[in-house]
Amino acid sequence: MARELLLVGGGHSHVEVLRRFALDPAPDVRLTLISRDRFTPYSGMLPGYLAGHYDFGDVHIDLAPLAEAAGARFLRDSVDGLDLAAQRVIPHDHSPLTYDRLSLNIGAAPRLAAVPGAADHATPLKPIDGLNARWLALLERLQHDPVSKTIMVVGGGASGVEVLLAMQQRLQRLCRERGLAESLLRFCLVTRGPRLLANHNPRVQRRFARLLTRRGVALHSEAEVVSVGAGRVHTADGRTLAFDELLWATQAGAAPWLADTGLALDGAGFIRVDDHLASVSHPHVFAAGDTASMVNYRRDKAGVHAVRQGPALAGNLRASLHDRPLTRYRPQRRHLALISTGDRYAVASRGPWSWSGNWVWRWKDRIDRRFMARYRPPLPTP
Ligand SMILES: Cc1cc2nc3c(=O)[nH]c(=O)nc-3n(C[C@H](O)[C@H](O)[C@H](O)COP(=O)(O)OP(=O)(O)OC[C@H]3O[C@@H](n4cnc5c(N)ncnc54)[C@H](O)[C@@H]3O)c2cc1C
């Protein structure tokens, strides 16, 4: 009898699982993908999309044809509960579905609720097309009412810095094209710690600090935002900073519904998994990407880990369905980060090393495009 494999979330790991099932079908497995969105964004290219270097299709994987190629049923829906005893998932709009093996790759959720007022006044980074539409609407408004506006980003990690520089590049270019003064838009970055890009080496941090100064971005460091009101953020040390548009780019948290599932979770609410990417409490449930917390390795949440886990997850899901031994996955300790600056220029960061230039951006562009091409049917033969 066919065994049921249920994939929840169309994240960076599950697209690889689908690709591998497409290249090597398993006739005795019934595969179902449930994902909230049909188009899954590839994080590495999102800042380039905001900067205007890529269009929507360049930076999103269409899950429908990929699922079809894998012989999977695709349900566009959000899962908000599990019944682990009955081996069922509970989608929002469909009837519960049973599984023999379940895999969760649902990413992380913006943590707006942690700061009073943030949910009412701030825009999270994802979904990124919503964010894009919002900034373009701001430009329309400026056209009719050209008074200066302050765009504030809270969060000084790589994604906050990249998004700020990308938006600045795009909006300033559009201002020039529409005959508006660039100076109408002010940009500011608010970060809790003393330095930007806390997970990167001091050379990278200095490069970006200099770049922000050159680009006229006001940097507020050691400014932990503790509450947000209309047009104002308040910091722990008593500062009040004004904004017209607020973008929330702090570290994301776990999906709140996981807390009610009975799965073993870490202190931040992410699913604890072993070296096989299987839940430590429920071995028929697997998790990968941001939503997983490997108990034997501490790693930052980054798309690169989700991508690397994809092949191991695919192999272990298949092995587990056939009661074969699973393979251990060991995440790399350091990974290469290519951080773009909005203008087809990028900074490479790995451990203590750093390089930068237009050539780094072209290198990143080649890697990213090659990655995306893997998931566009017809899929390349193995
Ligand atoms: C602007 C920006 C730039 C970034 N740049 C980089 C970078 O250059 N390099 C890097 O390594 N990392 C980067 N990151 C981090 C990266 O985006 C995340 O680490 C990565 O997306 C995590 O991948 P994932 O597969 O775990 O989940 P995601 O890519 O978030 O995918 C989750 C999927 O699950 C679906 N889903 C969510 N909840 C549910 C639900 N309840 N039911 C069903 N489906 C659901 C979603 O629709 C989505 O398809 C960046 C992040 C941002 C915001």
UniProtKB/TrEMBL annotation:
Keyword Cell cycle annotated: no
Alphabetical UniProt keywords: FAD, Flavoprotein, Oxidoreductase
Domain FAD/NAD(P)-binding residues, every copy: 5-310
GO MF annotations in UniProt: NAD(P)H dehydrogenase (quinone) activity
InterPro entries per UniProt: FAD/NAD-bd_sf (IPR036188), FAD/NAD-binding_dom (IPR023753), NADH-Q_oxidoreductase (IPR051169), Pyridine_nucleo_diS_OxRdtase_N (IPR017584)
BP terms from Gene Ontology: aerobic electron transport chain
Pfam families documented for this protein: Pyr_redox_2
Cofactor field: FAD
SUPFAM superfamilies xrefs: FAD/NAD(P)-binding domain
Name of protein: FAD/NAD(P)-binding domain-containing protein
